[in-house]
Amino acid sequence: MPVTLQASTVHPATPRAAVVRLALGDLDFDYEAGQAVLVGRPEQDVRRPYSLATAPHEAARDRAVELLVGLHPDGTAGPHLDDLAAGEWVEVIGPVGSFVLPSDIDARQLLFVAGGTGIAPLRAMIHEALHRHPTIDLGLLYSARTPDEFAYGSELRALAGAGRIRLVQTVTRHPEGEWTGERGRINRSHITRLLTSREALCYVCGPHALVEEVPRVLRELGIDPAGIRLEEWGG
Fold it and tell me: What is the DSSP code string of 125-191?
């Protein structure tokens, strides 16, 4: 059943993505970390899926959810969210999807691998996992084209600096200027830096090439295919 929610804020996350925060008000909106919603303007028919970047416990606390919306080169999201600004309304259908964090986490380690805007559902999972299991062994491998395209980058680096997660970032295009992180597409070396157990539960979300390649490497490293969860998303 569709619901209509108001955008409380719309602000840039990267040069190619924006964060849209939707106010829930009194709506009882239950979902699992990792799920998505279909979103569009009430006056037109096009609906596009976006993962919820907010952990369920945060949504219940703040009465709001966030979406990470990819943008075209001209800075627009497309006709389904044309010129969306704070105070305007969108229609939301969902939640949908089975790419979710389990209610009971019994793995020795959680490993998340993200490319581009594929960080959105993984951010919700990371926050939810840390909320439920504050001392869990949690690694994040995050790939973006350039250093300014890491959505939620400062937040994730703060979690790493506080020792709550282990983080590896890599850029796939070699930019001018300083960059002290990794370079190149996600590879075996990046993964082995974070993987501490063959009993890890691994979540991979991003463009097709990443979702195709990373599981192969994980299997070669001894991860049971049943412990690898995949979601193909925009780059």
Answer: HHHHHHHH-TT--EEEEEEESSGGG-TTHHHHHHHHHTTSSEEEEEESS--SS---SEESS--HHHH
pTM for the complete prediction? 0.95
Classified by CATH at the fold level, domain 109-232 comes out as: Rossmann fold (3.40.50)
Number of H helices, E strands in the chain: 5, 12
14 contacts 33 by C-beta, under 8 angstroms: no
Q: Which residues make up the CATH 2.40.30.10 domain(s) of the chain? A: 3-96
Query: Chain centroid to CA 32: how far?
Result: 13
Which residue matches tokens 């790419």?
99
Nearest residue to 18 (alpha-carbon basis) of 61, 63, 81, 64: 81
Taking only the tens place, the pLDDT of each residue in 16-59 is: 999 999 999 999 999 999 999 999 999 889 999 999 999 999 99
